[in-house]
Amino acid sequence: MTNQLTMYQASVPVFIKMLNNLSAIITKATAHAEAKKIEQSVFINARLSPDMFAFARQVQIATDTAKGCVARLAGNEVPNYADTETTFQELQDRIHTTVAYLQSFKPEQIDGSEDNTITLKLRGNPVVFTGKNNLLGFALPNFLFHVTTAYAILRHNGVDIGKPDFLGNLT
Amino acid sequence: MTNQLTMYQASVPVFIKMLNNLSAIITKATAHAEAKKIEQSVFINARLSPDMFAFARQVQIATDTAKGCVARLAGNEVPNYADTETTFQELQDRIHTTVAYLQSFKPEQIDGSEDNTITLKLRGNPVVFTGKNNLLGFALPNFLFHVTTAYAILRHNGVDIGKPDFLGNLT
């Protein structure tokens, strides 16, 4: 079973790939805004519903979910990023900082974390996860929720992107 | 390493849980439509962008991605579902059929499929995956893309749902 699925494989490269895809999508949105002479803030503050988060917050939470999950699986302190981004470039910087942080982990720091105890405070209440449940039942779905919603906000507002941009290189 | 992450754990229960969450979301949408006296078709045909798929198609592709991934990992024929749903109840039936199909798999049918060769025809071209890459680089992100987009279409159209409905029971 030398090729058996590991916690590293199911987390770090998945987060990195999807964050790089999100970065490429933001690059397209930046060009679109410039070509159409639309202020970036129109996209950055756009929401799909009045009580959903705006685009910038979707990117912030996606990066938070990725760095939080990997840091906790490794038993490290979660780095704190100020949520102050107001331009596409600042959001790109946040994504790049997150990707560099994720790339700093070696497989042996994450592997074997299946049954680690991870306690998160969610909506004010502590939730106790195993490492495995945290990754599969919370972090991956939550991360992909926010990447998809960021994509959907841009798509809803006319940016010419498609599923291939979301999925990126497939193999 | 007896508790090591397996291909079964990273696929079948994740798909089942998120499909059950989607079903509960559709139950809320059904009640909302009835309370507000809005035809179900308004939601079922709703899109976030003119060139994105409507709600029904999002649910169809989410179920297709889940059953296709698990069938292929097990080396089984992928069951074919007619894409004819036009009501919330018919979409619920499709989700329940998919969940029952996924529940029919035993861990030993999926485990050890990390390096199986899986060839998919995507946008007309054959793409060759390992089992692991098919799950992590295609099926999970694609599945969660469509579940999130289905959620976002309902949310955009005023259905009172939130992140707890999307994530479901966390542990």
From TrEMBL, chains A, B:
Q: Which domain of life is it from?
A: Bacteria
User: Mind telling me which Pfam families this protein's record contains?
Assistant: DUF1993 (PF09351)
Check the record and name the Gene3D superfamilies matching this protein.
dinb family like domain (1.20.120.450)
InterPro entries per UniProt? DinB/YfiT-like, DUF1993
The entry's protein name is: DUF1993 domain-containing protein
Give the species: Methyloradius palustris
Q: What is the lineage of its organism?
A: Bacteria, Pseudomonadati, Pseudomonadota, Betaproteobacteria, Nitrosomonadales
